[in-house]
Specification:
Length: 551
């Protein structure tokens, strides 16, 4: 008994040490750059008011409650960062415990946690105020108890406690991030199929009731609690729970961009899954632009593309090998327990991500833990070596050196001032508002500086009327030049930059070639020039150039 207690304390200490290491690393990687929805979360916490989004029902309200409980000791931004970083650390600590309980050595478990923590999507979201990783510990605990449930069931032991725990954490996960719901449902389906082979369908359904009830009670209970709090706080106009739910579903579905094409979706899914693990800054966007005939010459960026292609091939082959061996092993009638749980999480994440078909990091990090767990649970020495001795150090190096460290060291205030100086108070910034996933001038806060964001104007003001957009752009450029201001165009004229939202703008009727041809007719285009550390193209009036050139 004393030996068991000592082993338990050692295991807990090791898990806490792993979590602390992740916490320290991610804290050091925190950046001043505001990723994706961070501005919205800043505003929501700053208003001290609940905001309800059915896609992430309790995420913002729970963050607000934690912020209130902290007494604003850290301020809005650092409070959000702390929530996110602590969530990653807790999830990794739980995952370490899961691996140890599954019989993997301490060294393997630590290396697997490093693989998870070094994955590109976690590194993108984790050291920021983008709080969607609040769901990470709940996901890790759901997977942890699902694996316990699966092993206990195979050993003929009672599964009640594990089913209740897994279902409860699953219900909380869904209320934090609805995209994880397919994972929870597939877990039930897989365990139902496995149990039906041993006990028959009717008995298996009865045996699985604890999981189903826990998931339903916690999931619906938190939905009901959200509606009650929303009504009491005056943060919803819905008159009943059904309206509250359906209104949120419609709002979420309105964001769905739809199926691009049956041919493109598998390619997009495959790339996004690989990109979840590896930093691939341009291979996807340039590859798609090339396939669509928008990239005339790929030779200037060929060395970079080849390096990224090799990295993508290594990760893609690892994933294919894991899935191929895992599928063959799981389909065996006497498959070793511990494969169905990670498979349910992998395929559940795939079901949502394939449908939603966006490459946003929050739609893909759900793959990370179950993929690593599945690869180790197959207990193939060559696969373990590939995962932990090759992929992990490569991804750790590439993702840290290529993305994590440069983003953490990005001197936002100094770069904003340099950009402001380059344009002057009379200047005009022409570019995009959307965040492309890397440090970009669109993130700069430049008060008083006029901006013409092509993507926002196209989407909100002129509704894809290209002629109207170009006419509106000309008005702003001419006005800036008339007052003696400098006009700089960021990204929109760079032939090698096809990151979002350049592609979306092109698909909506304004490809780069058309924009360049239009501007070249009316202005002199020079550059690229450096503006705040970013390349930009300068527009000057044709008449002024002609006047200077005349004798």
């Amino acid at each position: 008994m004393r030996t068991d207690n000592l082993a338990s304390r050692h295991s807990m200490a090791a898990a806490l040490a792993v979590g602390a290491a992740v916490l320290l690393t991610y804290t050091l990687l925190c950046s001043a750059i505001k990723v994706d929805d961070v501005d919205r979360y800043w505003y929501e916490l700053g208003t001290n008011r609940f905001f309800w989004d059915l896609g992430h029902l309790w995420m913002q309200p729970l963050a607000l409650l934690l912020y209130r409980a902290s007494g604003d000791v850290l301020g809005v931004n650092h409070s959000l960062e702390a929530i996110n970083v602590i969530s990653v650390a807790l999830g990794c600590a739980v995952f370490f415990t899961t691996l140890r309980e599954a019989g993997h050595s301490t060294l393997k478990s630590v290396a697997a946690v490093a693989f998870v923590a070094a994955s590109f999507d976690l590194m993108t979201l984790g050291p920021t105020a983008h709080i969607k990783l609040m769901v990470f510990p709940a996901l890790a605990l759901t997977l942890h108890h699902a694996l316990r449930w699966e092993r206990a069931d195979a050993a003929g032991q009672s599964t009640l406690r594990h089913q209740l725990a897994s279902g409860a954490w699953a219900g909380l996960s869904v209320n934090l991030l609805v995209s994880v719901l397919p994972q929870m449902l597939l877990l039930a389906v897989f365990m139902l199929i496995r149990g039906a082979r041993r006990y028959g369908l009717a008995q298996t359904v009865r045996r699985m009731l604890p999981y189903a009830l826990a998931l339903a009670v916690v999931g619906f209970g938190l939905l009901l609690a959200a509606y009650v709090v929303a009504r009491q706080s005056g943060t919803t106009s819905a008159q009943d729970l059904l309206g509250f739910t359906l209104g949120g579903l419609k709002e979420k579905e309105d964001l769905h961009v739809g199926f691009p094409s049956l041919k493109e979706m598998p390619l997009r899914f495959g790339f996004s899954l690989v990109n979840n693990f590896a930093f691939l800054p341009s291979v996807g966007t340039l590859g798609r632009a090339y396939l669509w005939g928008w990239l005339a010459d790929v030779r200037p960026v060929l060395p970079s593309l080849l390096g990224q292609a090799l990295l993508a091939a290594m990760v893609g082959a690892l994933l294919l090998a894991t899935f191929a061996v895992g599928a063959r092993q799981a389909l065996k009638s006497k498959a070793e327990p511990g494969l169905l749980s990670p498979w349910a999480f992998v395929l559940g994440a795939a079901a949502f991500s394939y449908y939603y078909n966006l490459n946003d990091p929050e739609h893909w990090f759900q793959f990370t833990m179950p993929v690593a767990l599945l690869a180790l649970q197959l207990r193939r020495r060559w696969l373990t070596i590939w995962l932990l001795c090759i992929a992990t150090p490569v991804l750790l190096t590439v993702n840290l050196v290529g993305y994590g460290i440069p983003k953490a060291r990005f001197a936002l205030a100094e770069r904003q001032q340099a950009l402001q100086t380059a344009l002057g108070m009379q200047g005009l910034y022409v570019g995009f508002a959307a965040y492309p996933g890397e440090p970009d001038s669109s993130l700069m806060d430049t008060p008083g500086l006029e901006r013409f964001n092509i993507d926002l104007v196209q989407a909100n003001e002129i509704k894809a009327d290209v002629d109207a957009l170009l006419a509106k752009l000309d008005e702003h450029v001419d006005a800036a030049l008339a007052r003696g201001g400098r006009v700089l165009v960021f990204r929109a004229l760079d032939d090698m930059d096809w990151r979002g939202p350049v592609m979306q703008v092109a698909l909506a009727g304004l490809p780069r070639a058309k924009l360049h041809a239009h501007l070249a007719e009316r202005y002199v285009i020079s550059g690229p020039v450096d503006a705040g550390g970013f390349p930009a193209y300068e527009l000057r009036a044709l008449d002024l150039i002609r006047t200077r050139a005349s004798p």
